[in-house]
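Appendix B, Record 12. Input sequence as logged:
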Amino acid sequence: MILEDTLKKAAYKVWDELEPVPNGKGFKIFEVREEALTTMALKEIIKCFCAEIENIQMISGSEESLKGYDFELVIGNKKKGKYVRLFIQAKRLFGKNVSSKYDSMHFGQTEDLIKYSKGNSSLAMYAFFNHIVANSLVLENHYNSVTSFDKKSMGITVASAYSVKMLQSKKFTDYHFNDGMRIDPKLYNLRYFRHLFYFHRDTKKHLAIPFHELSYFTINMAEEINKMYKKIKSSGKLNFFFLFPFGLEETFDDDLIPILNTNSEELISQFKNRTQDQTKVTVGYNPQFLLIVNTDEIEE
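Logged structural output:
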C-alpha cells in the first residue's frame, strides 16, 4: 500500500474509534484515551505493509513508566542520508463539533516542546485526534487538502506547535477553518507546506492539515523551502514574505526546517536514549514510538 493510503488508514481508525456511542440506561462508555488511539493508529500503519515505512520502533514494557501518547515521525531520503524529524504531541478533541476544544492542551507544554525540539534539531508538531459530527459543507470548510474531500481523513490532522503558540487557542475550528478557500493545486508544493511549519500573521487558514498530506513532503522540498527562506531573510523582507509575527523569525536559525545528516540506525539509537532516560525527555512529551519514512521513490 502506498504511503498516502497508509496514513489515511491510521486516520480512519481514530475517526471510527471516536465515533459517539449512545449511553443507555444500564451502561456508560467512556471515550478512548490518547495513548490508546496512538497505539491503534500505529497498528493500522503496520498492517498496511507500506514499502515506504523504513522502520518502526516502540518503547518496550520495561519502560512502562515512560509511556505517553506522543511519537516521533522522521521523513527522509535513505540514499541521501538526510532526514527531517518531527516531535509530535497528540491531543484528542473533547466534543464532536467544530467549536469543540482540545481540553488537555497546555500552552506551557507547547513552549517546552518547541524548546526541546529546537535543541534536538527537530520540528515541534501537534497531532489532533478528531471526530466531527457535521454536514459535508461544514467539514469541507475545515478540510485542508488538495485531495478529494474525505471526512474520515480528518481523524488525524497535524499542525505546527508554533501555530499553537501564537494562536493560544484550543478550538478545532481555529486550526482548521479555511472559509471555503480550498488549497489551490497550483500551490501544492513549496508555498503550500509553508502553512504547516510556521504561523501566518495575516492568514490563519490551513494551519492544520490531514495526516496523509505528509506523504508528499520530501527532503528536496525541505531544501527548497530553506533556500527560499535564506534568500528572503538575507534581503530583509522575511516578515513580508513569510507573514511571521514580528520577532518570531528569531526563533529559527539558518534553516527553517532542520535537516539531519544521519541514518536510520542513528535515529533509532537517539530515540532509545531519550525514552530510556527520563531526564532526557521534556516535561509533557513522552514519545511512545518512532516511525521512519523513506521518500526515495517519491523524489525520483
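The chain has eleven helices and eight strands.
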